Amino acid sequence: MKLFPKKVLRKLYNNTSLKHVEGGVCFSVKNRLSPASVQEITRVSINGLDIPADKITVERNGQPSIPLSQIKPENPIDFPLGDLLTFYLGMESLSEGKHAIEVDFQTRPFGQLKLEVSDALNTGKLAPGTLPRDVVDDHSEEIIQARQAFIKEHTGVDLEHTRNYSIDPHLTRGNIEHFTGVAQVPMGFAGPLLVNGQHAKGEYYVPLATSEGTLVASYNRGMKVLHRSGGIKCTVVGDSMQRAPVFIFEDALQARQFTDWLIEKTEVIKAVADATDPFINMKYVDHYLASKFVYLRFNFKTGDAAGMNMVGKATFAACNWILQNCDVVEIQRFFLEANLATDKKASMINMMRTRGKRVTAEAVVKRDVLREVMDCDTKSIYQHYKVATIGSILSGANNNGCHAANAIAAIFMATGQDVANVSESSTGILFCELTPEKDLYISITLPSLIVATCGGGTGLPTQKEALETLDCFGVGKVYKFAEIVAATVLAGEVSLAAAISSLDWVSSHEQFGRNDPGQNGNG
Fold first, then answer.
1. CA-based nearest residue to 417, from 445, 447, 459, 448
2. pLDDT at 110
3. CA separation for the pair 12, 27 (Å, rounded)
4. Which of 35, 216, 271, 366 might form a disulfide with 188, Cβ 3.0–4.6 angstroms?
């Protein structure tokens, strides 16, 4: 079996984990390769000095440590992806500075591995200007107050409102580092939104967190028009999340030979990737060859999670299998992400191939309803759609609609989505046509809507409450949530297009949508 490149193996080591403990020193390694078991650890050395086996204990993920001698082929340690092994060495204290660390260990399925790294001793001393941190509990009230005082000392600002919150800071572990307080974003509800989807059926009151005046009112108005016109039909038509590694070869011929080999091994690679998480399902792998590079685009389904971390872990495991087993050409270099997944960036490939959920919302806006509620005619919106589409082409925009990002950002803020994903989620394809009755058929397709109903920030208390108001928290709800988001976007398209067509846009913002600094005592 082919050995891992040293550069890949070094990724096992946790940088800055070398430190003094009572009776010696410790360091840790983390499985960033793929699920494995440690059969035996045959050698541990510091600066070339072998540490006797009876002076070494190993701890896995905070469990009680065991003597090194207990780890043997008949009694291995399971080492799943993401698990941490901490080595405790009974030895003399180390001097400050860098030290060489070597570990030889027998594993399954990788065989014999040799880890060679250097790490500076972590003394725990903070550099001047470093934010206070507690390595044991960085979400305690004491350390939070220390950071608040630190910010006041260094900026002169007393975080009067930031420090007032109702949630337990410990609930934010895994969501934020250096927790210091909360940003209180105003939230309102718009509705009822009438959805006739495959997964979302009925009326919903949609939580929108924003500081932009008129936004909630605008969506509320669009929802009213669409409700009185019979509601919004929604369909999820695609579901895929990507990670896009690149492999580098000596020349284009080897790149093509590698691709041919890879296609033959697709089923094996799928099994390796799928084994990393019960909710992951590799669908297929796209191959793009340019020069001596092979760009791969792994496509997965990730259940009700957004899945970026899941697909990263699965793709890394698949790539490590490739690095070990490719015997047709020599891989010169490999990167886990080559920007072809275009994570947190709008792109044409995502518009064509889907990233996250691909969902379409469509409705027929009744002409008499639009006239009554919006003081606007369907023919005017249709005309605006045509000229705005040309404007979108001229500008190179990623959406020929009016403002999909407004709804998506406000819902994302309210429900604990990754707000940075608005960049690709707001890509949209708008289409309009007049019916023989002069009603307006309008649809919007969101080809890369990245949403989740579990994991990430969705479990934080206020964000969970917002999802629960839509009955969209937890497993089995993500398609329903995607349909509600798309329907809300469509309501906003109707509302803003009508406002532009009826010349209400500027006057509405002047009346409702802007805080005058002078009136707030700031001007």
1. 459
2. 79
3. 11
4. 216
pLDDT digits (tens, 9 = 90+) for 164-179: 999 999 999 999 999 9
Q: Assign a CATH topology to domain 6-120.
A: Immunoglobulin-like (2.60.40)
pLDDT range class, residue 2, cuts 50, 70, 90: very low
Predicted TM-score (pTM) of this structure: 0.84
Residue from 139, 196, 148 nearest 173 by CA = 139
Cα–Cα distances in angstroms (integers) from residue 212 to residues 44, 62, 254, 409, in the given order: 59, 46, 54, 11
Q: Which of 358, 263, 279, 355 is nearest to 314 (CA)?
A: 279
Quote the tokens at residue 402.
């009016």
Q: Which of 283, 490, 447 is nearest to 357 (CA)?
A: 447
Give me the active site residues, please.
212, 418, 509
Note the pLDDT tens digit of each residue in 355-393: 999 999 999 999 999 999 999 999 999 999 999 999 999
Q: Considering the domain delimited by 245-335, tell me its CATH architecture.
A: 2-Layer Sandwich (3.30)
Three-class DSSP category at 299? strand
The count of residues in the chain is 523
**Phi, psi at 88, each rounded to 5°:** -110, 120
The predicted pLDDT at position 516 comes to 60
Grouping H, G, I as helix, E, B as strand and the rest as coil, residue 515 is coil
What's the CA dihedral at 264, 265, 266, 267 to 10 degrees?
Answer: 110
Averaged confidence pLDDT in the chain: 92
Tokens coding 281: 């399902």
Peptide bond into 109 cis (omega under 30): yes
Preceding amide of 192 cis, omega within 30: yes
| 5-19, 84-98, 388-402: range with lowest mean pLDDT | 5-19
CATH number assigned to the domain covering 187-238+350-512: 3.90.770.10
**CA-based Rg of the chain, rounded to a whole angstrom?**
28
What does the alpha-carbon distance between residue 163 and residue 149 come to, in Å, rounded to a whole number? Answer: 11
Q: 7 is written with which tokens?
A: 């550069």
How many CB atoms neighbour CB 455 within 10 A? 18
